[in-house]
Design a protein that fits this description.
827 residues; GMP Synthetase, Chain A, domain 3; seven-stranded mixed sheet; 30 strands
Length: 827
């Protein structure tokens, strides 16, 4: 593979939005560049490695010298050779644009952290987390100069109208057509107008003040009328929604329209922001003024989902989901005695940030004042939360609990068994633990009781358990009993396991659910495991980690109108997330999708989701039989755990339905043999099968601090041996391909974890390691003849399937994983 091409895994330079690279032959020296450093130095060289996912670039200074430079040291990168781009007519056609009269150049001003500014004209721009791509208009030429500015160097960005605004301005498309186009933009390209809200989200107080001044020039309007004018809903749909609202006055018109499936919350917010000029604020990153938080107490903020952002004179700026909720605005004016300026925010981000800022549920049960001081405010995003400050606050609660216990006249044995001991403080403590677990991105909370020593509380984050808190044993029974009460379990039962669910919105400021498992242990004690549900969103399919070839194959599979697709792997391997990402890709208004899940961990608008309850006979099999009478196009069943469910799924897939399900198996080939062992008819199964995806989750290296070293001969030989075992591949040919695809000057580079403030011991997040087995004719023949696992695996590899181990090793060579992670998921 040519390492200098933009398609290379090591080199990424996107074209401007709604433009494509010219078909003319690429010029020589197109990767020659000028690197300006933060200290004022300027270096010329050839850019041989550049990707927004890594923290450094590869620069060839001479034939013999190649240097790696940290992005943090760089002020800007400019490619010396001007580039030619053509308007992407297909993308414009998708918006309904007929003419191509689009003004190409837009003025820009980039304020840098050193106090200087970069100005000029750009063909467009693309914001990545790593930085800003600009396409500078070259003097006396139609070509542009590609420029990149790292995010660490940027203080503020002001760029002329986006392409969507220009299309409207030039009367190429109407504003309403542009709004309608948003609903389909996810399938256009990486940088799309569908990212309108995210791209324009305000994160600074100065930007917000400027936007509010501009808003004053816009007229007012009713939400229903705005949506009709934007052609997002029909007058008939609005009439139906108003009829429903007449019978349920407490429901907002926007909520009713969303429940009807007429429109999504994102499109409503786009219409409000675009039509009325109401600013859209990224509340995850916005730095909130402490004096603004003091104006609204926590109980009111949580109940009405209002987040005060800043005070401007006698006005209070608040973030809400629906800025047209007039009664809420009136209540706020009366409560605060101030003029209210509402801005729009993502409702899910709003709930998380309110919970963070108001710390815990204590103020909901207090005297109406915010129960915290400025020191406890969390002013960063969810991913940057650290356990240190949280533990300090939890420690305050445990100290208070100890003091109250010491002051109690009851003997310690009564304290151990009486759930009323320090109940108010205990309630706050448990709520605080749950809120902190959610804020830190934990999937589970483990409460482990130990005889004669402290009760241990741990969080599972990115697949690994981390210590969070130790509590004196004296509080163990009170803690477990309180959780049982929240989950409506029997607090007098200590000998048998119990399962339940907590709707945390009834007890604290987060609208999440927790699945509860209480398990008796030795010495008459009990352990509790809380699985945090809710709040998760499906990941776009192209961001899960599939290669381009496998992503294309998978999209062809899910575009079928009938058949069976299985996702397999052990518990905690991300099967549900992958299935919901697939459903997200095919979830369109013309498709009816039913899901049967236990539990429902991810919710999506447009899906009809069912929670199975085996205790009352509402099983996966019963749900599927019901679905078949409800005119489905697509059925997703959480797990094929028995022969009955599997048989119904296969029969449904043969009668015109696309069926998705999961299996707890170790490999794709094993899944096929497992279903045959369940007694499935091999001929029906072969006809139904579209493909099997087997996956694991591996800990991903932190891109900011991972360290690189050239692979030794021993390491290379070991990797080649693992990659080629039981495959018949030629090790020499594999090594040659690796050096071409992943090597630098023919050398392979491996990365290792280091550790920094932004990660956990050198790791941040997880990524999918997978094998994708398509239902080819050869595979189907093996199913009919009851082929063995080795036979199915060999046939799949002949068709090009990479095994789990092979896929993991390639991600190791790309720099996403380390050897520890590879062997952890493939051993």
């Amino acid at each position: 593979m040519d390492r200098s091409t933009p398609e290379s895994a090591a080199f990424y330079w996107p074209p401007p939005p709604f433009f494509r690279r010219s078909a003319s032959p690429p010029p020589a020296g197109r990767n020659d560049c000028e690197v300006a450093f933060a200290d004022g130095r300027v270096t010329l060289g050839e850019l041989i490695e550049f990707n927004v996912g890594v923290d450094s670039i590869g620069l060839r200074l001479s034939r013999e010298e190649v240097k790696r430079i940290k992005l943090a040291e760089i002020r800007s990168i400019k490619l010396k050779q001007p580039a030619a781009y053509d308007v992407d007519s297909a993308a414009l056609d998708a918006l309904g644009a007929i003419a191509i009269g689009v003004e190409k150049q837009k003025p820009f001003v980039v304020s840098l952290v050193d106090g200087t500014k970069m100005t000029g004209n750009t063909l467009g721009f693309i914001r990545e987390k790593a930085g800003l791509f600009l396409f500078l208009a070259a003097a006396a030429s139609a070509d542009v100069v590609n420029c990149f500015i790292p995010a660490s160097q940027i203080k503020d960005v002001q760029i002329g109208p986006l392409l969507g605004d220009t299309l409207v301005e030039k009367h190429i498309v109407s504003a309403d057509t542009l709004v309608l186009a948003l609903n389909n933009q996810a399938k256009l390209r990486q940088e799309k107008i569908g990212n309108y809200l995210a791209d324009r989200a305000i994160i600074s107080a100065e930007e917000l003040r400027r936007a509010l001044r501009e808003q004053g020039k816009r007229p007012n309007a009713q939400l229903g009328q705005i949506l009709i004018e934007a052609q997002l809903i029909t007058p008939e749909q609005l009439k139906e929604a108003l009829t429903i609202q007449a019978a349920h006055r407490e429901r907002r018109i926007g909520d009713i329209l969303i429940a009807m499936g007429a429109v999504s919350i994102r499109l409503i917010q786009f219409a409000l922001s675009d039509k009325l000029g109401i600013p859209y604020v990224n509340v995850r990153e916005f730095k909130i003024a402490a004096d603004a938080l003091e104006v609204i107490d926590a109980a009111f903020a949580v109940r009405y989902q209002v987040l005060p952002l800043l005070r401007t004179g006698e006005s209070l700026v608040v973030a809400v989901e629906n800025p047209l909720a007039s009664e809420l605005m009136q209540d706020l004016r009366f409560k605060t005695g101030m003029a209210i300026a509402p801005v729009v925010a993502d409702p899910k981000e709003l709930k998380v940030r309110i919970a963070k800022e108001y710390s815990s549920a204590e103020s909901r049960f207090a005297d109406g004042r915010a129960g915290f001081g400025p020191q406890s405010l969390v002013e960063t995003g969810r991913d940057s939360l650290k356990p240190g400050p949280a533990l300090t606050q939890v420690a305050d609660l445990t100290d208070q609990l100890a003091r109250e216990t010491q002051q109690s006249a009851r003997p310690i044995r009564d304290v151990v068994t009486d759930t009323r001991v320090s109940e108010n403080t205990l309630v706050k403590l448990i709520n605080k633990i749950i809120i902190e677990a959610h804020a830190q991105g934990a999937s589970d909370i483990h409460i482990e009781s130990n005889a004669g020593c402290d009760t241990r509380i741990r969080f599972r984050k990115d697949g690994d358990l981390e210590d969070y808190l130790d509590l004196p044993q004296a509080y163990n029974n009170s803690l477990v009993s309180r959780i049982k009460i929240m989950a409506e379990l029997d607090i007098s039962e200590h000998r048998h396991p119990q399962d339940g669910k907590i709707e945390f919105g009834r007890h604290g400021p987060l609208a999440i659910e927790l699945r509860v498992a209480v398990i008796p242990t030795s010495n008459g004690l009990e352990d509790v495991v809380l699985r945090i549900l809710g709040g998760a969103e499906p990941v776009p399919l192209d961001q899960i980690g599939f290669s381009n070839q496998d992503l294309t194959t998978l999209k062809k599979m899910i575009s079928r109108t009938y058949g069976l697709i299985l996702v397999c792997g052990p518990t905690g391997s991300g099967k549900t997330t992958t299935l919901h990402s697939i459903l997200r890709d095919i979830n369109t208004p013309d498709v009816k999708i039913w899901t049967a899940e236990d539990p429902i961990e991810i919710t999506q608008s447009g899906l009809r989701q069912v929670q199975v309850q085996s205790k009352i006979g509402w099983t996966f099999a019963a749900a599927m039989r019901a679905f078949l009478r409800a005119d489905p196009d697509v059925i997703m069943v959480g797990e094929m755990r028995d022969a009955e469910t599997t048989k119904i799924g296969i029969e449904a897939s043969l009668t015109g339905h696309l069926v998705f399900s999961t299996l707890h198996t170790n490999s794709a080939a094993e899944s096929i043999v497992r279903l045959l062992d369940l007694g499935m008819d091999p001929f029906n199964f072969a006809d139904a099968l579209i493909g099997v995806l087997s996956q694991r989750l591996a800990r991903k290296l932190c891109p900011l601090c991972k360290q690189s070293h050239t692979a030794t001969e021993t390491e290379t030989a070991d990797l080649i041996g693992e990659y080629c075992t039981d495959t018949g591949l030629d090790p020499a040919a594999v090594l040659s391909r690796w050096r071409a695809d992943f090597g630098e000057e023919g050398r392979l580079t491996l990365r290792t974890a280091h550790g920094c403030e932004a990660c956990s011991n050198g790791y941040k997040g997880r990524m999918v390691v997978y094998e994708l087995l398509p239902g080819t004719a050869q595979i189907k023949q093996l199913i009919r003849s009851h082929g063995t696992v080795p036979q199915v695996l060999a046939a799949a590899q002949e068709s090009g399937m990479l095994s789990l181990r092979q896929n993991a090793i390639e991600k190791l060579l790309r720099g996403d994983l380390d050897l520890i992670g590879v062997r952890a998921v493939t051993s």
